[in-house]
Amino acid sequence: MMKIQKGFTIVELLIVIVIIAILAVITVVAYNGIQNRAKNAQYLSDVTTIIKKAELYPTASGTNSYPLASHGPDLTTVTSQTLSGSILTAGINFIAESKLPSNVVIFAVTTSAGAPTNAQATTATTASSTARGYFVKYCATGKGMYVFYPDATASPSAAAPSRTVGICP
Fold first, then answer.
1. Strand partners, 108
2. Chain Cα centroid distance, residue 76
3. What is the three-class DSSP state of 83?
4. What are the backbone dihedrals phi and psi of residue 158, each rounded to the nearest 5 degrees, phi first?
5. Local confidence band at 21 (pLDDT 50, 70, 90 cut-offs)
6. Fewest CB atoms within 10 A around its CB: which of 116, 136, 159, 167?
7. Torsion-angle region of residue 35: left (phi > 0), alpha (psi -120 to 50) or beta?
8. Are strands 132-138 and 162-166 parallel, antiparallel or unpaired?
9. What is the pLDDT of residues 108-155, one digit of tens each?
């Protein structure tokens, strides 16, 4: 009489391991995609808040203009919040009606002809562990500004996306 052995063969075990690995990879990829979409939604929400607060500023301050910071930084050297960025953040926050949430700051004001890259916008957001930073560029008309923010799904060398406040050409 022959003895029957119970158990799994090595091939069966390898197939199970491969299936588990494939499911794990699919889960990680899906999670990263969801996480990036959530970051982008937060950036857009912050930009909408900045735009609303900046639109309130002219009326609330009685100046009928946006808070101005005269000089922007050289974008290639920005690694922390610039003086222009802190002046603009403080200017918006000075008026109670236009106060920004505490974790949203204007990182820098740029006078550069081009937009900051996505990598620079991401640096603005990661420079502080508690705040998310954004770039602002005033329009040539002086009656509006662009707010630049990072895109978690774009390449680092791509131009950072922006939203416009007021009247820009």
1. 135
2. 18
3. helix
4. -70, 155
5. very high
6. 167
7. alpha
8. unpaired
9. 877 666 778 878 777 766 655 667 888 888 877 767 788 888 888 888
For residues 122 and 156, the answer to whether their CB atoms sit within 8 Å is yes
- Rounded to 5°, angle at Cα 33 from 108 and 41: 45
Give the DSSP per-residue string, 118-137: HHHHHHHHHSSSS-EEEEEE
Rounded to 5°, the CA angle 145-47-140 comes to 5
Distance, in Å, from the CA atom of 120 to the CA atom of 117, rounded to the nearest integer, reads 5
Structure tokens at 30: 């899906």
Please list the helix, strand and coil fractions of the chain in percent, rounded to the nearest 5, in that order: 45, 15, 40
